Give the backbone structure.
Amino acid sequence: MPKDDRGRTLAVRDIMTTTGLRYTQAARLLDAHLGRSDAGAVGELSSVPFTLSVTVPAEADPQKLAQRLADRLHTLLRPGASCQPYAVIAEISVPSTWKAGDVAAVSVRTPLVIRIWAVRPWREVGEADAVVADCVRTAAAWLSEHFPGAQPTFHALSEGQAADLTENAVPAVRTSSAHVVRPLGRLGRPDEAATDKGFGFRSGPPSGNRPASRPDHVVDSVFQSWRRGLDGFYYCDQGVEPLTYGRLDQLRAPLRPVGPPAAEERAQVIEVLSRAGQQAAASTLVAMYEVVEWIDRGDQMRVAGLDTQVFAAAGNSPQARTFQHLARTLGATLAQRRRRRQERYDDEVVHVLTYTVQEWVTGLYRYVEPASSLAALFGEVADATGGWAAVADRYLQPGSIVGHRDDLIEEARRYLLGQPSQA
């Protein structure tokens, strides 16, 4: 099954609306249009550090220069046939030894420690190097334009080296969320006239999703969950010392507020589940299986395992445990025993749900807890269409003599309808 990013999924759905084709057929038409033979790779939130040594006038203010450069790096461009932009957050640290207005020198050469956060297919061979190359190319062009003698030089860093270099550095500056990525046009082409109502993405939070005050619940850069106490401090689920929001932001940025799905996501999920009829339950279970398969394929060397990423906000909640259990039992069975004559789930529904969940947990500016959110949306559809009998086929009905184990059917029914688990 193809693995699509959000932009491609929306482009496929646009083709479906225009042509009346089913999802798979529309995806093939899009690939043919873009000249692609593969469907892309799953994007995940992670970062890569490196240094960029530059020569700038001695009177330059290091923090202002770093902030200007970070704001320029809100969007990177990958050269090639598609030449598509992608959103990033740049964190830039400058050494504490670099002071503005050094009258003893005309210029100063100093390393900038840059960390790039992005949602990218990091597990693909060479992707991290390519992100760094995209950033260096953009940064070098900006520096050369504003500081002709900058002579930027790139050096790769390990995580340990980055930590050593930033330990005594001036607090890092970060790309301002006011900078917005130019949306992608229809069929994935850059389009100046496109709006953010679809077929694109922003580097900042969606309109209406930016918290007006300190959020009550956040997930940090290493996928730990923090909740605000009555005293204003943030407490970690892992028992770490409580921190103020400012200190937490300094140590663990980017911080992502935990919240509900966006309105357009709710509408899309409810639409595809409603259209699926009695295939809705099986399709949802297969999508849950796709998510845990994505977890299992995760690289153990990453900053956090994908199981931590997916269930960061839920911790060890009953719904998170049930999500994983059902995915590895009923979901796995449905996905692995598919028969040509017995279409028990809908490819489009699986596609939409899988990548909606992945977007919920890998976005740069917000985090949506998937186990409870998915069950809540499924429950809305079931309530509106006639209950479990209307959204699950005969093999998932209680007491079915030709279906699955009764205990698994009951567990799935209770989870997806938002009912408490039986003791």
User: Anything to note?
Assistant: The radius of gyration is 24 Å. The chain has 14 helices and ten strands. The beta strands are 44-57, 75-77, 85-94, 107-120, 153-156, 170-174, 217-219, 225-228, 234-236, 256-257.
